[in-house]
Amino acid sequence: MALPKTNIAGCETVAVSANCDPRGCLFEIYRQSWPGAFPTVQWNACASNAGVVRGAHVHVDYHEFYTLPRGRVLLGLSDIRRASPTYRTSVQIEWADQDGFAVAIPPGVAHVVLFEEDSVLAFGLSDYWKAEYDVVGCQWDDPDLRFTWPTRPVVRSRRDAAAGSYGAMLQHYEELLARINGHHK
């Protein structure tokens, strides 16, 4: 399979090697030398059932590196960084574990994961998870994200179900970004 293109600045897809035999497969899921890779300080794994949606979320001050060791998902990415040359660019990637790639997601790129079957998503972070900056999000199907989703019932967390609009997410993101940038001066 050819690597999908995101067309979003800093959002890279990279080939992942798999060594398979009758026992199963060993997947290489991360190399710091890959395009878009960064030093990671925390790794998480998320096991979700078919029909679960996670997001839309956007991170203000850290990168994420997504790998899919098991399952099939539809990943939505939307650039909300006003200073980015790809601002307001959105893309959706159909992704199955056997496709052999991983995705680097920079700060300021909103992301939604629709789990199309029971799956495990693993992801590395460039900085530790911080609750005060990890509540930025909007409804997964907000039209301003510019995604086309299959029509079927989904399961979401309480936080995601209570999320506001794209406009509110963008405003909250920019307020936090200004606060963070003010602390670095």
Topology:
Blueprint: E1 12-15, E2 18-21, E3 24-27, E4 42-48, E5 53-57, E6 64-70, E7 72-79, E8 90-96, E9 101-105, E10 109-115, E11 119-125, H1 158-161, H2 166-183
Explain this structure to me?
This protein has 185 residues and is mainly beta. It has one domain: Jelly Rolls. It is 12% helix and 35% strand. The strands form three sheets. A five-stranded antiparallel beta sheet has the order 1-9-6-11-4, with no helix packed on it. A four-stranded antiparallel beta sheet has the order 5-10-7-8, with no helix packed on it. It is globular, with a radius of gyration of 16 Å. The chain starts with 11 loop residues before the first strand and ends with a helix.
| Beta-strand segment tally | 11
- Strand arrangement across the biggest beta sheet: 1-9-6-11-4
Unreliable residue stretches:
none
Helix content: 10-25%
| Average pLDDT rating | 91
Shape: globular
Q: What is the CATH class designation?
A: Mainly Beta
Largest sheet entry:
5 strands, antiparallel
Span from first to last CA? 45 Å
Short précis:
This protein has 185 residues and is mostly beta strands. It is built from 2 helices and 11 strands.
Features:
single chain, 185 residues, mainly beta, Jelly Rolls, five-stranded antiparallel beta sheet, four-stranded antiparallel beta sheet, 11 strands, 35% strand, globular
